């Protein structure tokens, strides 16, 4: 892993890393990694943060305000990119398909299949690389994300029992098989056989299997994308399953990083409680 | 004042405002204003944040992590722009002169004089407009800033006795009359008669008159711009004057917003103590 930049932050280190990814067809992937001061002494728990449409590794790293809280609770933060990138990588003119919009799946369809392996990248490759190279505790992982990243966090957490102790999301895409943010991308990346889509739908996964640890969802009541997010499907599935956790509708908040940063402290405390407990 | 955007944040409101400025030759000026929840009930104290070279009103608003702490302590935040802007406004190809680099002075020289009136804008015009339009308490003001904005904060605070109860700065330009970040701009904006420069030099102002309230300075020891900032001149002047306050050299930190955000909590608490005391 190449260190692209390093800034001291909150007593720890904010790194930007780059490495070639096998899961993404050899593509160079960039990510942010925050290591708290405690990482000097040994492995620390890790909170993964998956970002939304149009984001890179950088948006949350500079705008979500997570490092201060992670430092206070001795957690590392990982900020992966949202897709493979580069001149040789397929793309689309739309903001919600292709580069910046990987949707956390392994694409099986042309032209996406050669590089768009974000599921395998996050489920296997990147954790393997990080745990080898940095003082991070693989037995203490949690995951969160915003919008498309909330979708990724929830589906990865439910699909990998035992890996994450807790999962949370800010305004997640809850029901991609039933919304504009989802049907278009799942059709493009996975093809028209909808039976392959269900394992990438947080509400369907919640109804089918749930999550073995606590779940925290925050959703802005004034979010401009409610029709694409369909939070009611996840709230219904959580309640029906008696899923331990909370689904919170936050009055007046929209879809922006002002919303994410407003509740970041509570999400970090939520995960720290699970990770250190 | 036109409201360009509004986002709920930390229980309050993050506004972006736009208005024509007389001090800046009729130019449309943009700024950020964070109002904490307490502003619904009546006027709240105000912390001004002045930004550095190349920044707009937006950088600190999205990257400094100040709103969460301001909300906790019931403070409003003002994020002005760093210069006049627009097609009819003079500019320079260099990043450190012209638009984005107003240096918080009233320019007297061509081609800058018609629009570059950032001193009068911040000393008189903008406070007048804000106190008229929003529930802000003019008797409870404090000011901070980063780099060029630290220079602006310190010089405005010392030049306007009675206006600010406290002043702080993150890696301020301390001695512009003696550094590359300063001599070029003061010559361009104010002309070659250096006697007009001294009132825009924080270290000279500190030696000459000091500040009547507490002062807090944070400087990264690994800042890549130490030769341009000359923090030793301000530390020396503060110590010689017995200025109440603290000058802190922070090991390992650089000039970035990771540095600013790392110490934002302490700066907000510092100002809140002065404003609510």
Write the layout of secondary structure elements.
Two copies of one chain form a homodimer.
Chain A: E1 2-9, E2 12-20, E3 28-35, E4 44-50, H1 58-63, H2 66-72, E5 76-80, H3 118-133, E6 136-145, H4 148-159, E7 164-170, H5 180-190, H6 202-208, E8 215-220, H7 226-229, H8 231-241, E9 245-250, H9 257-276
Parallel strand pairs in A: 4-5, 4-6, 6-7, 7-8, 8-9
Antiparallel strand pairs in A: 1-2, 2-3, 3-5
Helix pairs in contact in A: 6-8
Low-confidence stretches of chain A: none
Give the overall shape of chain A.
globular
The secondary-structure class of chain A comes to alpha/beta
| Oligomer status | homodimer
Beta-strand content bin of chain A: 15-25%
Distance between the termini of chain A: 31 Å
Number of helices of chain A: 9
Main interface: chain pair and counts: A-B, 23 and 23 residues
Short description:
The structure is a homodimer of 277-residue chains. With 277 residues, chain A is of the alpha/beta class.
How would you describe this protein?
Two copies of one chain form a homodimer. With 277 residues, chain A is α/β, with parallel strands linked by helices. The first copy, chain A, is built from nine helices and nine strands. A nine-stranded mixed sheet of chain A has the order 1-2-3-5-4-6-7-8-9, sandwiched between helices. In chain A, a hairpin with a 2-residue loop joins β1 and β2. In chain A, α6 runs parallel beside α8. The longest helix of chain A has 20 residues, at 257-276. The radius of gyration of chain A is 17 Å and the shape is globular. The two termini of chain A are 31 Å apart. Chain A binds chain B through residues 7-11, 14, 62-63, 65, 67-68, 220, 222, 252-254, 256-259, 261-262, 265, and chain B through 7-11, 14, 62-63, 65, 67-68, 220, 222, 252-254, 256-259, 261-262, 265.
